[in-house]
Amino acid sequence: MANGCEMCCEILIAILLPPIGVCFRHGCCTVEFMICLLLTILGYIPGIIYALYAIVFVDRDQYFDEARRPLYAQN
User: Fold this and answer.
1) Contact at 8 Å (CB) between 48 and 12?
2) Residue 12 burial by CB count (10 A; 0-12/13-18/19+): exposed, middle or buried?
Protein backbone atom coordinates (compact mmCIF):
# COMPACT_ATOMS: atom_id res chain seq x y z
CA MET A 1 0.00 0.00 0.00
CA ALA A 2 1.23 3.48 -0.80
CA ASN A 3 2.05 6.01 1.86
CA GLY A 4 0.42 9.46 2.02
CA CYS A 5 2.95 11.33 -0.11
CA GLU A 6 2.89 8.74 -2.90
CA MET A 7 -0.90 8.73 -2.92
CA CYS A 8 -1.01 12.53 -3.04
CA CYS A 9 1.40 12.67 -5.99
CA GLU A 10 -0.54 9.99 -7.87
CA ILE A 11 -3.79 11.88 -7.33
CA LEU A 12 -2.27 15.12 -8.62
CA ILE A 13 -0.91 13.34 -11.69
CA ALA A 14 -4.30 11.64 -12.20
CA ILE A 15 -6.03 15.02 -12.24
CA LEU A 16 -3.62 16.38 -14.87
CA LEU A 17 -3.20 13.22 -17.00
CA PRO A 18 -5.55 10.45 -15.81
CA PRO A 19 -4.04 7.48 -17.70
CA ILE A 20 -0.52 8.29 -16.48
CA GLY A 21 -1.66 8.28 -12.85
CA VAL A 22 -3.31 4.89 -13.33
CA CYS A 23 -0.22 3.63 -15.14
CA PHE A 24 1.97 4.50 -12.15
CA ARG A 25 -0.32 2.56 -9.81
CA HIS A 26 -1.38 -0.47 -11.88
CA GLY A 27 0.94 -0.65 -14.89
CA CYS A 28 0.55 0.20 -18.57
CA CYS A 29 -0.97 -3.04 -19.88
CA THR A 30 -3.73 -3.54 -17.32
CA VAL A 31 -7.49 -3.36 -17.62
CA GLU A 32 -7.59 -0.34 -15.32
CA PHE A 33 -5.23 1.58 -17.60
CA MET A 34 -7.17 0.69 -20.75
CA ILE A 35 -10.50 1.70 -19.21
CA CYS A 36 -9.02 4.99 -18.02
CA LEU A 37 -7.49 5.67 -21.44
CA LEU A 38 -10.81 5.01 -23.18
CA LEU A 39 -12.73 7.19 -20.74
CA THR A 40 -10.19 9.99 -21.10
CA ILE A 41 -10.48 9.85 -24.88
CA LEU A 42 -14.28 9.97 -24.64
CA GLY A 43 -14.25 12.75 -22.06
CA TYR A 44 -11.70 14.27 -19.73
CA ILE A 45 -13.94 14.38 -16.64
CA PRO A 46 -14.96 10.66 -16.77
CA GLY A 47 -11.27 9.81 -17.15
CA ILE A 48 -10.42 11.79 -14.03
CA ILE A 49 -13.23 10.21 -12.04
CA TYR A 50 -12.19 6.69 -13.00
CA ALA A 51 -8.51 7.43 -12.40
CA LEU A 52 -9.25 8.65 -8.89
CA TYR A 53 -11.36 5.57 -8.27
CA ALA A 54 -8.64 3.25 -9.59
CA ILE A 55 -5.93 4.91 -7.52
CA VAL A 56 -7.79 5.31 -4.23
CA PHE A 57 -10.17 2.34 -4.07
CA VAL A 58 -8.82 -0.44 -6.28
CA ASP A 59 -6.18 -2.40 -4.38
CA ARG A 60 -5.15 -5.48 -6.34
CA ASP A 61 -3.25 -7.04 -3.43
CA GLN A 62 -6.38 -7.58 -1.34
CA TYR A 63 -7.79 -10.10 -3.82
CA PHE A 64 -4.78 -12.38 -3.43
CA ASP A 65 -5.12 -12.59 0.35
CA GLU A 66 -7.42 -15.40 1.50
CA ALA A 67 -8.66 -13.51 4.56
CA ARG A 68 -9.70 -10.40 2.61
CA ARG A 69 -11.40 -11.79 -0.48
CA PRO A 70 -14.74 -10.19 -1.41
CA LEU A 71 -17.82 -11.86 0.04
CA TYR A 72 -19.08 -13.02 -3.35
CA ALA A 73 -15.84 -14.97 -3.97
CA GLN A 74 -15.95 -16.97 -0.74
CA ASN A 75 -17.41 -20.46 -0.64
Assistant:
1) no
2) exposed
